[in-house]
């Protein structure tokens, strides 16, 4: 029995090492407050870690504000792809952040403190955004696109024997996955 104890410790260490980790700037414990809950009130002064998809990046005189469509975060504190939104929020951080880099649709995670609200139009509706005074604004790398391609000679929808019968090679093949990395847009032209 004593022999299994070191093996169990090594296995546990390897399992923990294989777990997804949160990037250092986003690490820490944060309450489970959502932008929807903060929108309803009572979250003033709460430390939060929220993320989502950028709607608008707006540089101002001394700071840049990011209007974000919030999504739940995964085990790495990255916004989960797809799914329902947890509301909207605005995060403001001192300094200039390039709107072309922090473009609409990019994913960010922010940490900071809820401090007041900002009201802006969403269509014809006056929407009240919870405002986060951000300590950290973490821009995630673009996710690769996946394209599923089928080989017409091994397409399972042609039947169990392929297009010509049972004498032509494999009859069932899973679709090939082609990963297409998303390149950043070209830099703006200088006049």
Outline the structure in words:
The protein has helices spanning 4-18, 35-40, and strands spanning 47-59, 63-71, 88-94, 107-122, 125-139, 145-149, 176-180. The chain is mainly beta and 191 residues long. The strands form 2 sheets. A 5-stranded mixed barrel has the order 1-2-3-5-4. Strand 4 (107-122) and strand 5 (125-139) form a beta hairpin. The longest helix is centred in the first third of the chain and has 15 residues, at 4-18. Mean pLDDT is 78; it is low at 167-171.
SSE sequence, one letter per element? HHEEEEEEE
Instruction: Give the helix level as a range of percent.
Output: 10-25%
Q: Give me the Rg, rounded.
A: 24 Å
**Number of H- or I-type helical stretches:** 2
Question: What gap, in angstroms, lies between the N and C termini?
Answer: 75 Å
What is the assembly state of the chains in this entry?
Answer: single chain
Number of strands: 7
Average pLDDT level: 78
Q: Main sheet, how many strands, which sense, barrel? A: 5 strands, mixed, barrel
Secondary-structure-based class equals: mainly beta
| β-strand amount | 35-45%
* Form type: globular
The spatial strand order of the largest sheet comes to 1-2-3-5-4
Uncertain segments: 167-171
Relevant terms:
mainly beta; 2 helices; 5-stranded mixed beta barrel; 37% strand; 191 residues; two-stranded antiparallel sheet
